[in-house]
Design a protein that fits this description.
mainly alpha; 0% strand
């Protein structure tokens, strides 16, 4: 189970770091409308939130890919 978690989380961590670098090189967190929400967020908070959201989405995509790659092919439809 630990190995599976590392196979999923480590590549998604690297891709999230690249995605955050690309996203925040195009958009400045000070220019994003984060103040209109109920919480007021500093630029550092926006970087942190953005990284964890990118990491979450990349991990979900990696888990789905791993699941679809290792699901046994069934001959009968499930319904």
């Amino acid at each position: 189970m630990r190995r599976l978690a590392m196979v999923i989380l480590w590549p998604s961590f690297l891709v999230a770091a690249l995605a955050e670098g690309l996203f925040f090189s195009l958009f400045d967190p000070a220019d994003l409308p984060l103040d209109s929400m109920a919480m007021h967020m500093s630029p550092l908070g926006a970087y942190t939130l953005g990284f964890f959201l990118f990491w979450l989405f990349c991990a979900l995509a990696a888990m789905l890919s791993h699941y679809l790659a290792y699901v046994p092919a069934e001959r009968q439809p499930p319904f």
